[in-house]
Design goal:
Layout: E1 8-14, E2 17-24, E3 36-41, E4 45-50, E5 55-61, H1 70-73, E6 82-88, E7 100-103, E8 109-113, E9 136-140, E10 147-152, E11 157-163, E12 170-178, E13 184-194, E14 197-207, E15 212-217, E16 223-228, E17 232-237, E18 242-247, E19 252-257, E20 263-268, E21 272-277, E22 282-283, E23 298-299, E24 310-315, E25 333-338, E26 343-347, H2 360-369, H3 373-381, H4 389-404, H5 410-424, H6 432-455, H7 459-469, H8 472-484, H9 488-508
Antiparallel strand pairs: 1-2, 3-4, 4-5, 5-6, 7-8, 8-9, 9-10, 11-12, 12-13, 13-14, 15-16, 16-17, 17-18, 19-20, 20-21, 21-22, 21-23, 24-25, 25-26
C-alpha cells in the first residue's frame, strides 16, 4: 500500500490472517508533492505520478530487490540505496487529476493515462497546443532511466487502460463512447507500440443499456465485463462475438474477474458484493456459519462498520500471469479496500471436493450436483473449444452423462441438444485440429442420445439426428423399431436412407 504522502506499507498474509506489517517512511519528505496519484513498484525501480504535477518520479534502486523472497520484499527502501529523478510529461497545466500508471510484462515500457472529458480550455489554464490534449503517454523505462516515447489522445474518455498480458507491446483500453444516435457504448481498443508510437490497431464497439461505470477483462483477454449506471452488467466475448446482459442487485462500482476466468465479483460502493458466472447467472453467497442461508449479495455493513465507499476488489494472484487450465494454484483470497479504510480480505471456502479450485469445470460440476443443468450448459456455451478443448470435453461429458441417466422429458431433450450443439453448432467455426481431436468421442455421446430418443419413441428427432451423424446402422435401428411399433412408412424411409448411405460408400470407396 502506498499512501499519498509516500508512506509505503507492506502487508504479509498467512492465508487470510495478517502476519506482518512493515511501515516504510523512506520517501516521506523526499518527493516534490504529497499528492501521489498512482505507482508502479518493481524489483529495480518505482514510478510515481502526481495529481497536481505534470511530472513523473523515477526512483532507481542501486541494489536489486529479490521478489522471490517474501521476507526480503518487506525490507525498507532505505536498504536498497535509491536515487530519485523526475521527467516532465504532457497534459494540461494546473489541473488536479488522477493520473494512472501501468507497466508491461517485460517491465521495459509503461503507460500514463488520465481522463479527458472535455476539449474546451479552462480560462485559468488554457490548452496551448495539440500535444497538451494528449491523455495517453507511452513511457520507456529500460536501461535505468525513464523517458516519454510518444503520446496520443484517445477518441473518447478512457475508463481503463492496461498492457496486454499476452502481447507485451500492446495496450488495451476501454473508452466510454456514444453511437450516432447518442446511445451509450463502450469502445474496446488495442493500441500497438511501433516506431511511430501508439497506434490504434483494433476497435470493437459494445452497445450498452446505460453509461459504463466500471470494467474488467478476464485473464485470457477474450471477455470484457462492464458495469453500467442502471445496475446492469454486460459481458462481451471477442471470440464468439456474443454480448450477454444481466441485472445486478447493486450499482456496479467495481468488478473483478477470478484468475481462473470462471467467476465475476461485482462490488457496490455501499459495501456489497455479488457473484456471477461467465454466463452472468448470479451465484449466492454467505459468510461461513452453522446455518445454510445463502443470499444474493454479501453486505459488509451487516458484519462490520464501513463508513466509506468500496473502491477496490482484487484477487490475490500475480498481476501478469496467464491462466492455465492445468494450473493447481489456489486463488481464494479477495482484497477489499474502502476509501480511507478499512482494508480487508475475504477467504473463499471452496470445499474439499474441488481441491480448492474455482474453475469452469468445478462450477459446472457443482451446477450438475444441484440439478441446475441449464446454468451448467450456459457456462459451457461460453467456453472456447479451440483453446480449452480438454475442459470443454470434461464438462460436456459430465452434463450428457447426467442427462442420459434421467427419464427423457422435453426439457432434458433440449438440454442434450444444446450441450452437443456447443461442439456441432458453435457460434464460431472450430479449428480443424479441434474437430479431428474430439469428433469421435463426442459422436459416441450423439449416438447415446440417438438411442435415448429411440427408447422413448421420439422417432422424428432420432431420424434428424441420424441424418446429422450419417451412419447406416442408426437408420437400420430406426427401421427395425419402427416395424415393431407399426410405423411402416417411417420404417420404409429409414431403410431407403440406409441403402443410400450404402450405395454412396460403395461409390466413394469409403
Amino acid at each position: 500500500l502506498l499512501f499519498h504522502s509516500g508512506v509505503l506499507v507492506s502487508l504479509s498474509l498467512s492465508g487470510p490472517q495478517l502476519e506482518k506489517v512493515v511501515i516504510d517512511r523512506s520517501l516521506v519528505g523526499k518527493l516534490i508533492s504529497d499528492t501521489i496519484s498512482d505507482a508502479i513498484l518493481t524489483d529495480n525501480f518505482i514510478i510515481l505520478s502526481f495529481e497536481d504535477h505534470n511530472q513523473l518520479c523515477f526512483i532507481q534502486f542501486t541494489k536489486t530487490m529479490d521478489s522471490s523472497d517474501v521476507n526480503k520484499r518487506l525490507e525498507k527502501l532505505s536498504g536498497l540505496d535509491f536515487k530519485i529523478s523526475y521527467v516532465d510529461i504532457l497534459g494540461p497545466e494546473g489541473r488536479r487529476m488522477k493520473r494512472h500508471l501501468a507497466i508491461n510484462s517485460l517491465q521495459d515500457m509503461a503507460i500514463c493515462w488520465w481522463s479527458a472529458t472535455s476539449d474546451g480550455a479552462w480560462p485559468w489554464s488554457p490548452i496551448s497546443c495539440e500535444r497538451d490534449r494528449a491523455n495517453l503517454l507511452l513511457l520507456g523505462c529500460a536501461h535505468g532511466k525513464l523517458e516519454v516515447l510518444s503520446s496520443v489522445r484517445t477518441e473518447w474518455e478512457p475508463l481503463d487502460a492496461r498492457w496486454s498480458a499476452r502481447q507485451p507491446r500492446q495496450v488495451l483500453t476501454v473508452e466510454r463512447s456514444l453511437s450516432a444516435a447518442g446511445e451509450p457504448m463502450a469502445d474496446s481498443c488495442a493500441y500497438k507500440c511501433g516506431q511511430s508510437g501508439l497506434q490504434c490497431a483494433a476497435l470493437t464497439r459494445v452497445p450498452l443499456p446505460a453509461r459504463a461505470l466500471s470494467c474488467c477483462r478476464d485473464g485470457t483477454e477474450d471477455k470484457l465485463v462492464l458495469g453500467c449506471e442502471d445496475s446492469s452488467v454486460v459481458l462481451y466475448s471477442a471470440h464468439s462475438q456474443v454480448t450477454l446482459l444481466a441485472r445486478a442487485e447493486l450499482l456496479p462500482a467495481v468488478i473483478s474477474c477470478h484468475p481462473s476466468g470462471a467467476l465475476l465479483v461485482v462490488g457496490g460502493s455501499q459495501g456489497e458484493l455479488q457473484l456471477f458466472d461467465t454466463a452472468l447467472s448470479p451465484l449466492k453467497i454467505q459468510l461461513l456459519a452453522q446455518d445454510y442461508s445463502p443470499e444474493a449479495t454479501l453486505q459488509f455493513s451487516k458484519h462490520c462498520e464501513v463508513p466509506t465507499s468500496l473502491i477496490q476488489i482484487q484477487w490475490a494472484a500475480p498481476p501478469v500471469s496467464l491462466p492455465s487450465p492445468d494450473s493447481t494454484d489456489i486463488h481464494d483470497l479477495l482484497l477489499v479496500r474502502f476509501d480511507k479504510g478499512p482494508l480487508g480480505v475475504l477467504h473463499f471456502k471452496l470445499g474439499v471436493m474441488t481441491r480448492g479450485q474455482l474453475g469452469l469445470v468445478e462450477i459446472i460440476h457443482q451446477y450438475i450436483r444441484y440439478e441446475e443443468i441449464q446454468e451448467a450448459i450456459n457456462v459451457l456455451s461460453t467456453m472456447n473449444w479451440n483453446t480449452m478443448g480438454p475442459q470443454c470435453y470434461i464438462c460436456l461429458s459430465a452434463i450428457c452423462n447426467h442427462l442420459l441417466k434421467q427419464k427423457l422429458t422435453p426439457d432434458r431433450e433440449a438440454q442434450l441438444e444444446a450441450s452437443l450443439g456447443t461442439f456441432y453448432a458453435p457460434t464460431r467455426p472450430l479449428l480443424d485440429r479441434t474437430v479431428l481431436e474430439y469428433r469421435d468421442p463426442i459422436s459416441r455421446y450423439a449416438r447415446r442420445f440417438f438411442h435415448h430418443l429411440l427408447r422413448y419413441q421420439r422417432f422424428e428427432k432420432a431420424f434428424l439426428l441420424a441424418v446429422d451423424i450419417g451412419a447406416r446402422d442408426l437408420f437400420m435401428d430406426i427401421h427395425y423399431l419402427a416395424l415393431d411399433k407399426g410405423e411402416l412408412a417411417l420404417a420404409e424411409v429409414a431403410k431407403r436412407k440406409a441403402n443410400d448411405i450404402d450405395a454412396e460408400s460403395i461409390t466413394t470407396g469409403v
